[in-house]
């Protein structure tokens, strides 16, 4: 599942735009008074202005070439403070065969750069921001994980790992919905509890996936009219 578009809310829109376009150097595709869009590999990421006095935050991940993790980490650390937990600023997920590093943006999003060594994504040149492959994870918060995951399954989205009441990944290594229980602490976030905020996605070959409120979900397949799921 490859995410071609992702829309999130932001309570710090201007600062977040400067961060992604100037600090990190992503290409600015579109800009308006209440939104902006960047190109992050295969994914267009749009940040829209949140409601007044609201400060939404999310967890999402960007894939980096699997053979360039150390280089990508050095590149990132020269521009952004990396999140540290237990004196470590990176992690290797044995069961996922992946290295990851984390940071926060001005909106408070917990952003992960992850090198998935099972994917054929190696490059033979120096890493640049143009080598970001796209969004590969977005956190989806549910009151109860497994019943919500089963609704996703019924809509044609398969698990990547087995059902777990705390966290279940749905999709594949190119694009995962990380379904977590409400207020579960995000990994490498310094104990930040997960909270729901609206998410809109478009996935290649799948259509639109919308999560407008906690425990609500609908999918619009390509070429189909909108229907609740």
Walk me through what this model shows.
This protein has 229 residues and is mainly beta. Helix content is 13%, strand content 37%. The chain has helices at residues 13-23, 69-77, 145-154, and strands at 3-10, 27-31, 35-40, 43-49, 59-64, 91-93, 98-104, 110-116, 134-142, 167-172, 175-181, 199-203, 207-211, 218-220. It has a seven-stranded mixed β-sheet, with helices on one face. The model is unreliable at 225-229 (pLDDT under 50).
SSE layout:
Elements: E1 3-10, H1 13-23, E2 27-31, E3 35-40, E4 43-49, E5 59-64, H2 69-77, E6 91-93, E7 98-104, E8 110-116, E9 134-142, H3 145-154, E10 167-172, E11 175-181, E12 199-203, E13 207-211, E14 218-220
Parallel strand pairs: 1-4, 5-8, 9-11
Antiparallel strand pairs: 1-12, 2-3, 3-4, 5-9, 6-7, 7-8, 10-11, 12-13, 13-14
Order of helices and strands: EHEEEEHEEEEHEEEEE
> Would you count the extended β strands for me?
14
The number of helical elements comes to 3
Q: Compute the CA-based radius of gyration.
A: 17 Å
Unreliable segments of 5+ consecutive residues: 225-229
Report the end-to-end length measured between terminal Cα atoms: 18 Å
Share of β-strand residues: 35-45%
């Amino acid at each position: 599942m490859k995410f071609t578009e992702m829309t999130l809310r932001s309570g710090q829109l201007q600062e977040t735009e400067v961060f992604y376009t100037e600090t990190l150097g992503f290409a600015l595709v579109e800009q308006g008074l209440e939104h902006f869009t960047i190109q992050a590999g295969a994914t267009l990421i749009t940040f829209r202005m949140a409601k007044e006095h609201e400060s939404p935050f999310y967890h999402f991940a960007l894939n980096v070439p699997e053979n360039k993790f150390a280089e990508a980490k050095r590149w990132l650390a020269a521009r952004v403070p990396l999140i540290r937990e237990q004196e470590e600023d990176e992690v290797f997920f044995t069961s996922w065969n992946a290295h990851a590093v984390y940071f926060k943006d001005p909106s408070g999003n917990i952003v992960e750069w992850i090198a998935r060594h099972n994917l054929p994504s190696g490059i033979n040149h120096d890493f640049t921001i143009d080598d970001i492959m796209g969004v590969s994870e977005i956190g989806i918060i549910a009151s109860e994980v497994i019943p919500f995951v089963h609704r996703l399954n019924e809509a044609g989205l398969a698990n990547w790992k087995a059902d777990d009441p705390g966290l279940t990944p749905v999709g594949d290594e190119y694009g995962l919905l990380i379904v977590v229980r409400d207020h579960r602490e995000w990994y490498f976030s310094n104990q930040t509890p997960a909270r729901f905020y609206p998410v809109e996605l478009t996935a290649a070959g799948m259509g639109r996936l919308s999560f407008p409120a906690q425990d609500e979900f609908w999918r619009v397949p390509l070429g189909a009219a909108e229907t609740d799921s």
